[in-house]
Amino acid sequence: MSRAPCYGRCPGPGDPRRATRTRRLVSPSVDDAAPDPTGQTAPDGQNRPAPLVVAASIGALEGLALLLLAALEAASVDSERLSLGISTAVFFALTGGAVLGCSWGLLRLSGWARGPLLLAQLIALGLAWNLKDAPLVALVLVGSALVALAGMLHPDTMRALGTLPDDRPQDDHRG
After folding, report:
1. What span, in angstroms and rounded, lies between the C-alpha atoms of 131 and 56?
2. Residues contacting 63, CB < 8 A, separation 6+
3. What phi and psi values does residue 41 have, to the nearest 5 degrees?
């Protein structure tokens, strides 16, 4: 689209009328905002509640621990238990990657990520019961799982994810 010549009537660079004509008509995006140094703001500008950040951090640590276990299992594979060692390492790696991905999704306030992380914490509680003969490992598993569950089920987290029903009473106008 070509512009018609102004012949001296067009506003110049310092003219306030030019600023009103070139003002953006869309709302500012997240890219226009200054980055949050605390990391408490999600990509859409919404604040992340502290319980959600704690739960996602615990999930990320669990995912990293599973990846570490996968690497250790892969390193200890010998010819006598080749298929078992490889399948166990692959299982740990896939599970660790999934837990890390869900933790990242939870930090980005994606509601889909909460369910798999809840399931991972329930599995950790069952694993802790199975490892009750090693009390330190069992206590770490129980403690981290309970803190993560409390963080994911906290009302602020559920509100941020959009899964908490509205507290306001609804008017029922049925004829």
Report:
1. 24
2. 96, 97, 98, 99, 100, 101, 103
3. -115, 130
Cβ 109 vs Cβ 161: under 8 Å: yes
The predicted-structure confidence for 122-135, as pLDDT tens digits, reads as follows 999 999 999 999 99
Comparison of pLDDT for 161 and 27, the residue scoring more: 161
- List residues bridging with 44 in a β-sheet: none
Q: What is the helix, strand, coil percentage profile of the chain, to 5?
A: 65, 0, 35
Which residues is 47 bridged to in the sheet?
Answer: 41
In a domain, 29, yes or no: no
What range defines the domain where residue 102 resides?
49-161
What pLDDT, on the 0 to 100 scale, is given for residue 162? 87
Instruction: Read off φ and ψ for residue 34, nearest 5 degrees.
Output: -70, 145
Contact 75, 67 (CB under 8 A): no
- How many domains in the chain? 1
Gap between the Cα atoms of 137 and 7, Å rounded: 81
